[in-house]
Design brief:
The structure holds 2 protein chains of 2 kinds. By secondary structure, chain A is of the alpha/beta class. Chain A folds into 2 domains: 219 residues, Rossmann fold, CATH 3.40.50.2300; 176 residues, Rossmann fold, CATH 3.40.50.2300. In chain A, 42% of the residues lie in helices and 22% in strands. In chain A, the strands form 2 sheets. In chain A, strands 6, 7, 8, 9, 10, 11, 12, 13 and 14 form a 9-stranded mixed beta sheet that branches. In chain A, strand 8, helix 8 and strand 9 form a beta-alpha-beta unit. Chain B is an all-alpha fold. Chain B has a single domain, classed as ABC transporter involved in vitamin B12 uptake, BtuC (Orthogonal Bundle). Chain B has a two-stranded antiparallel ribbon with strand order 1-2. The longest helix of chain B is centred in the first third of the chain and has 34 residues. Classes of the chains: A alpha/beta, B mainly alpha. The interface between A and B is large, with 37 and 37 residues.
Chain lengths: 400, 290
């Protein structure tokens, strides 16, 4: 009889072992699916879905189960609630997404206590990665585009004076601080700094821009969330005739998101942004990415910098699943697997800096122009290779 | 002209344009609240609906901008009638809370419906050339679209003033706002009057929504995003008062624009400071009855 008991135990062990080998891994995705910024969520969501659809076989025999939750408005409260629910009720071993910095900031205590890695696909305030050892960022820090824009504007665009204007929340402050640091290091002078209300509503930009027009700087550096705000900025900039007045519009790539560019019209032409992605970026991975995107979402839908980061984010998560053979239960191992991860994605060569758990990527200066086919496009006029988060290098403010 | 005078004129101009948008969009809300005491939080949804009609008419059907505005206003005014007849009417005698629940629910349903059909990406409209540039008044150039807003606003104010003060229907509306039971006693059909003003208010909201596309871009969340602003205008102006709504829109539009120009750090402080001060001194608003 004993032999049967042993056989039974062995069979049981085999079954248990078998399921452990082909695991279904739950991944919590938190993105804004409703409200004024829902399209930002959709840009990343589409990239996630596309990656999962095309690469599900890469992680065989494992499977992923994506559980989506609404991040809500850019205030952090709802994101904190739904992410806590994902961790405690759905028991996800990893959360990703997070468009808004306030969400990532609000969630730090939860993540630290739960020890569940968060792979950030957008939220860009520089010091976020300092808040938790379980934060890994695949997107960017506000400093990635904003800091190199400083010397570029001074040296290449002939801006001696600049005005900064920003949406008054953490990434806005961060972006203008980064630009100011880079710009003043290069020798320029920021003459005026204008906060432009909360990210929740698009304000009437006219009074702010009128003030800038009267101050007459060489350049105006503007940061707004890349949703409806960006369209509003372009309209006010065009209406007030600021380009005619000789004031160049510059900013991070959020100012001319690829999926809204066509609607911005002539006012956008000549705008110069710094960023790590544009639809027209010329590399093999991006060609493939665009092709698959249009195949899945139609010819009128375009990926943007958020989608590109979203694609790389899911890629990194899949590679981690492969590397850890489907077992994401140990947060430290997950983070260790992500540190130093690199790929040639739609953005070009990117890498996770193992020291900071933040991305290293190329930054391109891009000018909006009218393409021969009549559509608006962005052409690259300068590139800075392998940019690290300068905030953490210079140890500015909360990046210490 | 001195530097400060130029700045003052430009703030006045921009503020006036903003005030006209506020007035056009809020006046309907004020009248319905004054007339029926009905809290219509779906007002912004009618404005958003008008905005999307303008987008569809101009983008998909190639109708020019100005006719699109008119068609959208009339269409939304007409669409609002069955809502008033079959939904709102049920709750005239109910508490404020029930009215608020119904109408905010309608607003959320409208957001979901329009997101389904139009998507959440902000929409813009093609403007005729003469609205794209600026008008130069010698000492300073002003965006033509803002000038256009002021002209439309002024024309509407004149038309509404005439309708309210000089016509039979206007007199009936004023009578019903003043004392509804008395008005009914002398044979005024207040129900029908209300349907009419409700349609007019919704139509004007739609016009405001169409005009707002160029200012803020249009997304389905327009339905609730600016609602607080409209309610502030109505509260400061006094329920049911045309004059009050106009004055409140002017005060808020101009002071907010000036505040943003001179003290951008203060954010929305100016709007709320005005609201608090006015309501402390006159709890029923500028021209509301205590």
């Amino acid at each position: 009889m004993k032999i049967f008991r042993w056989l039974g135990l062995a069979a049981l062990a085999l079954t248990v072992g078998g399921t452990a080998q082909a695991a279904t891994i739950k991944i919590g995705v938190v993105l804004p699916y409703s409200g004024a910024n829902a399209d930002l969520g959709h840009q990343i969501d589409k990239a996630f879905d596309l990656y999962v659809k095309l690469h599900a076989k890469d992680i065989a025999p494992h499977k992923v189960q994506i559980i989506k939750r609404d991040e809500g408005p850019p205030t952090g409260a709802q994101a904190k609630r739904v992410t806590t629910e994902l961790i405690t009720n759905d028991k996800v071993p990893l959360v990703t997404g997070f468009v808004f910095s306030p969400s990532a900031i609000a969630l730090a205590p939860v993540i630290n206590q739960a020890k569940v890695p968060m792979v950030i696909a957008n939220a860009g305030t520089a010091w976020i990665t300092k808040l938790s050892p379980y934060y890994v960022r695949l997107s960017f820090s506000m400093w990635h585009p904003a800091f190199p824009m400083g010397p570029y504007a001074y040296d290449k665009l002939g801006c001696k004076t600049a005005t900064v204007a920003y949406t008054d929340f953490p990434p806005g402050k961060d972006s203008v601080l980064a630009f100011k640091t880079g710009f003043e290091k290069a020798g320029g002078k920021v003459t005026l700094s204008i906060p432009m209300g909360s990210p929740v509503q698009v304000p009437d930009f006219t009074p702010f821009f009128q003030r800038i027009k009267d101050a007459h700087p060489d350049c105006m550096y503007v940061f707004v969330p890349s949703g409806a705000h960006a369209t509003g900025v372009m309209k006010a900039y065009g209406e007030l005739g600021l380009r005619k007045a000789g004031i160049k519009l510059i900013g991070p790539m959020d100012l001319v998101p690829d999926n809204k560019l066509q609607d911005m019209g002539d006012a956008a032409i000549g705008t110069i942004v710094m960023g790590h992605y544009a639809v027209d970026l010329d590399n093999a991975a991006n060609k493939k990415f665009k092709e698959e995107w249009h195949k899945a979402y139609g010819p009128d839908s375009y990926p943007d910098f958020m989608s590109a980061a979203g694609w790389d984010t899911m890629h990194a998560i899949f590679d981690t699943i492969k590397k850890l053979n489907g077992n994401l239960s140990d947060a430290k191992k997950v983070v260790a697997a992500l540190e130093g991860w690199s790929t040639d994605g739609p953005r070009g060569h990117v890498m996770i800096d193992p020291k900071t758990r933040d991305i290293v990527e190329d930054e391109h200066a891009m000018e909006v122009y009218r393409k021969p086919d009549g559509k608006l496009g962005e052409k690259i006029i300068g590139t800075t290779k392998a940019v690290h988060d300068e905030c953490k290098i210079l140890k500015v403010g909360r990046c210490k | 002209m001195s530097h400060f005078a130029t700045i003052a004129v430009s703030i006045l101009f921009d503020g006036l344009a903003y005030a006209m948008f506020l007035f056009i969009t809020s006046v309907g809300l004020s009248v319905t609240m004054g007339l029926m005491g009905f809290v219509n939080l779906a007002h912004g949804a009618f404005a958003m609906c008008g905005g999307f009609f303008v987008v569809s008419l101009t983008r998909s059907l190639g109708v020019p901008f100005i006719p699109s505005l008119i068609i959208a206003s009339v269409a939304v005014g007409a669409i609002s009638v069955p809502f008033e007849r079959y939904l709102y009417r049920q709750l005239y005698k109910s508490t404020d809370l029930e009215q608020v629940l119904l109408t905010i629910g309608l607003a959320f349903m409208a957001i979901a419906t329009f997101t389904y059909f139009y998507g959440p990406i902000p929409k813009s409209v093609p403007l005729p050339d003469w609205l794209e540039g600026d008008v130069n008044l010698g000492f300073r150039a002003f965006p033509s679209y803002r000038a256009f807003l002021i002209v439309i606003g002024a024309a509407l104010i004149a038309a509404l003033w005439y309708a309210f003060e000089k016509t039979n229907i206007g007199a009936k509306i004023r009578a019903a706002v003043d004392n509804r039971r008395m008005a009914e006693s002398v044979g005024i059909n207040v129900d029908r009057l209300f349907t009419l003003t409700f349609a007019l208010g919704s139509g004007l909201a739609a016009l405001g929504g169409g005009l707002a596309i160029q200012l803020f871009g249009l997304t389905p969340s327009f339905a609730v995003l600016y609602l607080v602003l409209f309610l502030v205008v109505v509260a400061v102006g006094g329920l049911g008062s045309l004059k009050g709504t106009l004055l409140a829109a002017l005060v808020i539009g101009i002071i907010d624009t000036g505040g943003k120009y001179a003290f951008p750090v203060a954010g929305n402080l100016f709007i709320y400071a005005i609201t608090v001060i006015v309501l402390l001194i006159k709890p029923a608003g500028f021209y509301g009855r205590e």
